[in-house]
Amino acid sequence: MYPVAWAVVEKETTDSWKWFIGLLIKDLDINNEGAGWVFISDQQKGLLNSV
Predict the structure, then answer these.
(1) What would the pLDDT profile of 10-32 be if each residue is shown by its tens digit?
(2) At the N or C end, where does the chain have fewer CB atoms within 10 A?
(3) 34: Cβ–Cβ under 8 A, 6 or more apart, which residues?
């Protein structure tokens, strides 16, 4: 396990998580609705509403 990406945002919200996840999907070229990928975060504020 190793960190793949991180971001600095003004506030941790659902919108900032959606923005971050969208960039992550694009940069990692994730297809098939993410089949085979597992993402782990210890910072969940707003994350559950975003996925």
Answers:
(1) 988 888 888 988 888 888 888 77
(2) N
(3) 25
